[in-house]
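Worked problem 6 (solution included).
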Amino acid sequence: MNPPLRLLLPLLLAPLLAAQEGHSQFGQARTRELAELGVLPTPLDVAVADIVDYHRHRLPLPRAGEAVAMDVRFGGAAVAPGGEAVLQIGFTTAPSGDRTDLPPLNLALVIDCSGSMADAGKMDAVKRGLLAFAGRLRRDDQVALVTFSDEAQVLCARRRFDGGGWFRSAVEQLAPGGSTNLHGGLVLGLREVANEPLPRGSNRVILLTDGIANRGVVEPEQILADSRRYTAEDVDLTTIGVGTDLNTALLDRLARGGRGLFHFVADGKDVAKVFVDEAEALVATAARTVELRVELPRDLRLLQAYGHEFTREGDELVFALPDMNRGMTAVVLLRCRCTAEADGGRLVARASLRAAPTSPGARRIDLHGDASLRVDESARDPFADPEVKKNATIALLAQGMHDMAEQCQQRRWAEAYRILRAAIDTAQARLPDAQDKDVQAVLQMAAGHERTLRRYVDRFQDYE
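Solution. The predicted structure is:
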């Protein structure tokens, strides 16, 4: 039986969607949604770092007065010559239980009100999320509401939030209809914030859409160029994609260019996650221009940096990380091989994090840490640390789905199946009785993509 057309479309369109991959917050929800629909992902759909960081990591919190904490550890205490080890560099930012310590907020919400927002209750879910979000805003916050469909309009010019009655009334009146003039809405929102930026505040635009620009300026490169006129300096941009009919490459690039994140919203539950659970993260940044440098010992060779690109400067690996929001946790995982020929030595890895602070008058962030391994021929378990074991297993599965998607773009179905199956088998062997809900969720995604991929393998008869 031929695969349904909806299964083939993502692969036929994949070259058109190709873009440089960056860290975002949509990978977990996007990959899960496609797995449930039986649609194979593109490599951009499987953001490895996002899947690894979707759950909250168990890491030390910053000490009082600090914006960021760094934790450096290996998965085990020892490694055998020729064996593998995983180095985890973890980060946490200070939570904000008291909203009064957040910087002043200058925010424009740009909401898609095109006709497709009526489908599957999307507009109702967005309205509930916005009303919940209103409960997190303060009286002195400056807020604007911009909508777009056939045309874009400033529904509520930037004003003091006060009690929020005006905002809630405007949200209740949102109604879908018309086309998607994304460019017009985005530019209006950027102008609202950029006209009078707050020198020591959070100047942010949040763009929410469920579709692809089809009215006004529709060329992605032009939309990106026009947004950069504002985001290059004072204005941050977060994008939220609702549903599956999205230009994910554009939304991801817009957010990365604006020092923000791209959130993928699959259903009402995810709307709540973005607008409620992550409200402070959306509007408050803990660190900007984040640079991680890692120096590995001579006898430890890097095999893979899961989900992160890097450059080399002498003996150091240099990672340009996304801006860090309040209340976040994240890890960078490096899979390495020990090249020492004999045991008895000690391998030390060093990491440093440098970033610009966002709090007025705060000092530049400059953190240092290290971790060591004993070279021991009897070493067998590289994952004595359960937290590293969990994160490395999720990373393995996410990387397997990403590499599978790359092979699918080349229509190498058998190789794609082999890669994904190997990742699943390794994960299950590593955690044979995995009860952790985060690991189970990623395993289920991988299994869903395996079932879909098997149809292609059977169809083209190249699986043995």
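Discussion: Residues 120 and 197 are 37 Å apart (CA to CA).
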